[in-house]
Amino acid sequence: MAKKAKSVYMCTECGNEYLSWQGQCSYCGAWNTIVEHKISDLKEPAADSRRRTGTEGRPVKLGTVGTSEHARIDSGISELNRVLGGGIVLGSLTLISGEPGIGKSTIIAQAANRIAEAYGTVMYVSGEESEEQVKLRADRVCGGISDNLYIYPETNIENILAICEDMKPCFLIVDSIQTMYSSEVDSVAGSVTQIRACSNLLIKFAKTNNVPVFIVAHVTKSGELAGPKTIEHMVDCVLSFSGERDRDLRILRSYKNRFGTTDEIGAFRMTSEGMAEVNDLSGSLIETDTCEEGSVISAVYEGSRPVFFEIQALVTQANVGFARRTAVGINYNRLNMILAVLEKKAGLNLLNYDVYVNVVGGMNTGSTATDLAVALAIYSSFKGKTASRRIVAVGEVGLTGHLRSIPNADKIVQEAVRHGYEAIILPERNARHAAESGKVSVSDAGRSVSVIPPGSESSRGIRVIGAANIADAIRSYIS
What we know:
Mean pLDDT: 84
Distance between the termini: 89 Å
Shape: globular
Largest sheet: 9 strands, mixed
Strand order of the largest sheet: 8-7-9-10-6-11-12-13-14
Structural class: alpha/beta
Number of strands: 24
Strand content: 25-35%
CATH architecture of the largest domain: 3-Layer(aba) Sandwich
Radius of gyration: 27 Å
CATH superfamily of the largest domain: P-loop containing nucleotide triphosphate hydrolases
Number of domains: 3
CATH topology of the largest domain: Rossmann fold
CATH class of the largest domain: Alpha Beta
Low-confidence stretches: 42-55, 441-459
Helix content: 25-40%
């Protein structure tokens, strides 16, 4: 008599398992995410083949373990290499996600073609599109297609790995993981059990054969990665493509990277010929050199480079009902906090005014370094005043009205010099640290205006203004 299949109940958000169904996951707190899954009764092999260490299973002293640089291959796309930490690490598993139509398959097709030209056989597994659809995209974005680039429309993971063992590619792409299934698992494709099983097999293949693998993943309506959170822990890198659908700017971010930093971003523009790299992101985001009402330039430090962009604010009289607050590119709750500080500490009565704030160019920043620029843009629009010079404002606004310091302010100042800005407003502590570094001369605890001597990167200096609070920053902006 056949054994009855064992059932477990698993949360699709965090992967936590339960013996019976319940409405809310007690681990992550999500509602209606626990579903039933069948588990096949398979015996474990006598010898554990999953161990990949080189110490014969014995503990060793950590200080005696040798370290070496991970071998990398060039993807042919410098912005992608930047985000990955210098290139694609051999034997790594990378998960890339993003909204539909954002450009995931496009950039992967471009990288696959360039890797095929430089290193050899590349396997592109397509579970969603036919050969003709992938070929049409490759013709458009790659120009000439390499003879080493192969397409394999298949969803069975065992068949895919069997082909890879035979052809031995140097790079494998799976598009997408939600369409893959294993015949050993009694569940539909896209379920938590199937995704975990297929990911485990791909990890084993990548580590055993030292082949880098890229996995494309779907996202949910809220923009989060679809599937269990355990997959993000299993893979080596998690990349995310973001951008506005009505704009061509695309930002590639790394949310996890075992072989590099997670602070780097890559900038691209969607064109008819595919993804074009944006090397000068600050220059592409700022289109005007004139000082306008309600417009302030700000900057954040992303990875190894400062990024400058324009923040615009519009304050108008509310006609009916409650005043509206709209934020595009910054956090909505952060905007409400800044408005409260302006009312309390700067004397602005915005109760009956609609406030609209937008980060120009489609940039979406979550950094608190833009607080000061948002506050000054709102003040400029409300009072109808503009700065008399090209000025940059960077700093975090606290609830007490004081400006809190930000990291890498000295590098932002140097980049402002290169772009030819005339002045920059910084928190007082950042200005004092810049003076101690010897790059600027600041007196009176950083509150007076100083000048950076002209260097090789710019024929002009820049005036550095250290502000202790929001009131000081407003006076320096309109003076």
